[in-house]
Amino acid sequence: MITETKIPEISETSDLTVRALTRVLYGEDAAHHHERWRKLVSTPPFRQQAELARADRLDLSYQRLRLIAEATEDGERLAADPVALAALHEWTALVDGGLTTVAGIHYNLFLGSLVDHDGGRDLTEYTELRRTGTFLCTELEHGNDAAALETTATYRPEDRTFLLHTPRSGAQKFMPNTSLNGGPKSAVVAARLLVGGTDHGVFLFLTPLTDGTATLPGVRVRPLPERVGSPVDHCLTSFDRVVLPLSALLTGEHGRLAPDGTLTSTLGNKRKRFLAAIGRVTTGKLCMSAAALGATRKALTIAVRYGHTRQVSGSTPGHRLPVFAHRSHYAPLVGALATTYAMTLLHRSVLRGWAERPAGDPAAAATAERLTAVAKGWITWQARAIGTECRERCGAQGLLAVNGVAGLVTDLEGTITAEGDNLVIWAKAGAELLFQHTPEEPPATAGRDLSDPATLLDLLAAVEHLWLTRARTRLRQGPSGDPLARWNHAVTPALRLVEAHAQLLAARELARAAEADAAADDVADDSGRAAEPLRELLRLFALQRIAEQSGDLLALGRLTPEQVLDLPVLIDGLTERLAAQAMPLTAAFDLPTELLADHPIARTDYTGAYDDPEGHWH
């Protein structure tokens, strides 16, 4: 019987390319932001324990959170650095979706909110995880309209205290991790500040919840039903006239309260104060995108490796070959590789823009926030599609939790909803682009070389332009005097505009990375080796999306009939060339070998996992 090589060896030349691509994906500061988390998730406490019961998995997530705290020299500095936080999420998502959730809540939403507001607090008990932090904003009846939440904090100047109260069932906080799991907990609670009968809008209040053995007086916590994916202790939480000191109010430029109850604020309305108070949600979007990237890279690595080891019958008797030899199998994975590289580089750019936004420039901050929302929606939706494709390409093996793919797919659902539901934040971004985005009309593209990155970028810009034009036309044609009906008239092309905008930005980042690598004058052996693979990935990424819009582009004179007919041939050729590089392209994700060893189908000898007579999966 003839059998093909299970996993092709990565040559010395390919190894140099892998190193170059890894450098592009993680950046020049990878050692500072990524390597410490990569090393941490490679250690024994983070190895897969697939046979644990859900309750034990939840406890393990909190134990791992403490290991993160022990490995973090300065917790406040971590909370203040969106780049470091995003890197943390990229790597924890590979091993434990529950950990990713509770770490994001503790370090970003809770500790980050404390760091961002007026200082003077001793945060040691939170940085050392003597108390775990959580974040209570959304309510049972108020999710994406959290600005209308109903929990109140009534100030009493006579004793300088607040009464934190849940006025009715619909105002219960939904669905923070407020159970007794994870040790003593405190929360940052969003509540309406009431002073002398005046509603000053939503502010944050530091509130102890539990002492490790029970909830504190006036705090009621009820566990919610299990969610899909990794276990997290989501709960309903309410307050019955809980007394808080004046110092519990998180203050800043958006609002400070004097002991006599006088509020001073640099922001003129309640909505602006609310958005300033919950500003950590924007960093949270970046963290959710980062978690989705980590999960996607792992799913792809496992699927590609398994595709090279899984042998199937060939075209002649006795001939065996890897299932990855079939274009029907590898084409979706290769397309996913191109998208994943584009997702990663877009995220790097948007993250950098948010971290480096100029202080005191509201317009720049608004643009960075919109880009964050655009990227979050696109990256997490793409991640779910890729994760599902990887699960399917692994067949029945992909359904087994021990193989590490199915769990990633269910965990990705959380990234789509958390820190702003994708559809809602895209609708807002679409409205902003419709009124504020003024790109120049791209140059003529018909008849130009479809292998030229400049042509491809112009065509993607043309796609963005056509959806912008359609959305504006639909808005003008909408019924007057009815804002909702008018918006409903335009929302469909507006959402397509956001998608086209994200794809164009991602393609531009791929092109920039390729050109930067090609222009590098570094003397390192791997200098310049990433440029051509990145160009090939860009070509495939762009052409697949141009093909989806080829009818519109033909009608607008952006493509010739001959170019439209050539698109499938060009895409197939690129897919075939990149399929031969699928192993190096996934090797560049630099996933720890210790982590991959936990999943049988990620190994060359995956059938050996079924040889243990005791039924233990190694």
Describe this structure in words.
With 618 residues, this protein is of the alpha+beta class. It is 53% helix and 10% strand. The chain contains 21 helices and 13 strands. The chain has helices at 12-26, 30-33, 35-41, 54-71, 75-80, 82-92, 97-116, 124-127, 270-277, 280-309, 327-355, 362-393, 406-417, 422-436, 453-477, 483-519, 531-548, 550-555, 561-579, 582-587, 593-596, and strands at 132-136, 152-156, 161-165, 173-174, 185-195, 198-208, 219-223, 235-239, 242-245, 256-257, 263-264, 311-313, 320-322. The strands form four sheets. Strands 1, 2, 3, 5, 6 and 9 form a six-stranded mixed sheet that branches. It has a three-stranded antiparallel sheet with strand order 4-8-7, with no helix packed on it. It has a two-stranded antiparallel sheet with strand order 10-11. The longest helix has 37 residues, at 483-519. It is globular and about 85 Å long. The model is unreliable at 1-12 (pLDDT under 50).
- Biggest sheet architecture: 6 strands, mixed
Poorly predicted runs: 1-12
Please count the beta strands (DSSP E, at least 2 residues each): 13
Rg over CA atoms, rounded to whole Å, is: 26 Å
Shape: globular
Summarize the structure.
With 618 residues, the protein is of the alpha+beta class.
Mind sketching the topology for me?
Elements: H1 12-26, H2 30-33, H3 35-41, H4 54-71, H5 75-80, H6 82-92, H7 97-116, H8 124-127, E1 132-136, E2 152-156, E3 161-165, E4 173-174, E5 185-195, E6 198-208, E7 219-223, E8 235-239, E9 242-245, E10 256-257, E11 263-264, H9 270-277, H10 280-309, E12 311-313, E13 320-322, H11 327-355, H12 362-393, H13 406-417, H14 422-436, H15 453-477, H16 483-519, H17 531-548, H18 550-555, H19 561-579, H20 582-587, H21 593-596
Parallel strand pairs: 1-5, 2-5
Antiparallel strand pairs: 2-3, 3-9, 4-8, 5-6, 7-8, 10-11, 12-13
